[in-house]
Amino acid sequence: MVLDRSLKLMYMYTLMIRTQVYFPEDLHRELFLLAKKENLAMAELVRQFVKIGVRIKRSKKSSGETLLKLASDAVKGLPKDLSNRHDEYLYGKKSPFGK
After folding, report:
1. What digits encode the pLDDT tens for the residues 28-87?
2. Is residue 41 in some structural domain?
3. Would you say the pTM of this structure is higher than 0.90?
């Protein structure tokens, strides 16, 4: 059992890059207590939090992307010649409001 755990740890650590991070004292204390409560190494807890944070950041779109999506959705189903014939659609024969 101890050998299995040692092999797992050796394998896991050969695929990682060591990084040093500084935390404010209060955050360090919270991480330490949470790691102890969850029965995890503090490093593993930090890795889990960072992984979640990266996923959230990656999934967020920029405001420009969001605006383009809204604009694209807003014009779906509109006539292709709307920009050229907008007066006709608003006030003419093609107006949904009648004449």
Report:
1. 999 999 999 999 999 999 999 999 998 888 877 777 777 787 777 777 777 778 778 878
2. yes
3. no
Rounded-to-integer distance, Cα 71 and Cα 19, Å: 43
**Position 50 in a domain:** yes
Cα separation values, 8 from 1, 4, 51, 60, Å: 11, 6, 20, 34
Amino acid identity, position 91: Y
Site of tokens 């050796």: 10
DSSP three-state, residue 90 = helix
Q: Is the dihedral of CA 3, 7, 12, 14 positive or negative?
A: positive
